[in-house]
Amino acid sequence: MTRKSAQTPLLWIVAGGFFMQTLDTTIVNTALPAMAADLGVTALALKPVVVAYMITMAMIMPASGWLADRYGSRNVYFTTVLAFVLGSLLCAFSHTPTQLVMARVLQGAGASMLLPIGRLTVLRSVSPKEFISAAAFMAIGGQIGPVFGPVLGGVFVQTLSWHWIFLINVPVGLIGMCAVLRYMPSQKQEGTPRFDFIGCMLLAACLVAFSLALDVPAADHQAAWAMGLLVLSGLSALGYYLHARRRAHPLFPLSLFRETNYTVGIAGNLVCRIGAAAVPFLLPLMMQLGMGYSPLHSGLMLVPVAIAGAVSKSWVSPLIMRFGYERFLIANTLFVGFWIISFALFSPEWPLWLQIIQLAAFGLGNSMQYSAMNSVTLTSLSPQQAGPGNSLFSMFQMVAMGLGVTVGGALVTLIAGPARHLVPAFTWSFVCVGLITWISALVWRRLDNNRLDQVIKQARTASKAA
């Protein structure tokens, strides 16, 4: 048996885990109205069901590498899949919104480590020249998850019930657990240093407090609660700064933020993704609650977004090498924001073919935007900074996605008001999140182009040599 064929089961395991993670990130959005009707609440009241999953992933992701080193990749990955399966079962059998949110936290805890540990295991199992093709194979799971998620959500809601969007994970997870025990290497590392639990808890408190401050769950004294949570978030961030200065090996070294392009990339990602991440949450709700589409119809309408996104990924590198990071990111940011704002035109009378064009154009631009933002953020880091820098960046990505749902839902609730005028509320919410996306164009003007030009020159040289 060749080395490549020996690693094939491992690649399937990791790609399957990535598929489950991305599937559950998208499948819930289509089913929210049906879930809300069954649980006796409004669809917008279930925002925490989506946000809790993403924030939990953001909180636990930084510990994934340390856990894999300390206890072994196989043991931790098996436990991760088990937590995901148990969380899915609890979601399916939830009878109240509170129970569902708590179950989503457990599910998010499992999902948080599926990709990081899987990618780390493959990185340690294949040679450097094999990792490029291995990474491409693993990415397939992440690409098809968003395609199947909305459609499966619509199919299950219409033909069975919303509970099946979670129950489908059980047989897949059980097969995955058996495969992990048989094919995944242990890779336990001896002499693993102590984990920075204090730093991790301070960052977690900062993220959770900030997220809750934007959409306070309390019914009374919301302004006071929001201010208190913002103060807590700020104090937690300050506490981490003081802690990281004193600790020899903090969770994330402060030296990362002395790299201009990394800091600008984090800020630009955060602002841009808040706007763009609101779209997959708002579109299915608008289509079902405002336009009268069925769950399956609304799910199928999101397929052009995923397909166009997969097609456009190969265009990013040539465009960046031709126009440079700054010009490409500014132009593409304006492009993405324009199509987000164009969703304000959606109505039952709006032509279907034009809706599909708008969705495909958004998917095309948004996919290129994510790829370019990822690249510009990480490309200037040194090899020593790459590990912690990538982990912190992944955490901010999940936080931004959660904030997108929070901000989008809060805008609809605020604009709709007590009279519950949902159609104009969705219309103006898309205008607002599109404008938020445009704001990130101002951030990209702060990039250090001298460093980035060197990276582009190196990429051009390597491309010519190849």
Word description of this protein:
This protein is an all-alpha fold and 466 residues long. It is globular. It has 3 domains: 1-190, Growth Hormone, Chain: A (Up-down Bundle); 196-250; 255-466, Growth Hormone, Chain: A. The chain has 20 helices and no strands. The longest helix has 37 residues, at 3-39. It has helices at 3-39, 47-60, 64-71, 73-92, 97-111, 114-125, 128-159, 164-167, 169-183, 197-214, 222-246, 260-290, 295-301, 303-312, 316-323, 325-342, 352-378, 383-416, 422-444, 449-465. The two termini are 30 Å apart. The model has no long low-confidence stretch (mean pLDDT 82).
Biggest beta sheet attributes: none
Low-pLDDT runs of 5+ residues are none
Specify the structural class. mainly alpha
Radius of gyration: 22 Å
- Categorize the overall geometry: globular
| Range of strand content | under 5%
Please tally the helical runs, counting DSSP H or I stretches of 4 or more residues: 20
Number of strands: 0
Q: Architecture of the largest domain, according to CATH?
A: Up-down Bundle
CATH domain class name of the largest domain: Mainly Alpha
Helical residue percent? over 70%
- Tell me the CATH topology of the largest domain: Growth Hormone, Chain: A
Overall pLDDT confidence: 82
Q: What oligomeric state do these chains adopt? A: single chain
Distance from N terminus to C terminus (CA atoms, Å) equals 30 Å
CATH superfamily of the largest domain: MFS general substrate transporter like domains
Question: What is the element string, with H for helices and E for strands?
Answer: HHHHHHHHHHHHHHHHHHHH
What is the number of domains? Answer: 3
Subcellular location: Cell membrane
Keywords: Cell membrane, Membrane, Transmembrane, Transmembrane helix, Transport
Main location: membrane
Domain Major facilitator superfamily (MFS) profile: 10-452
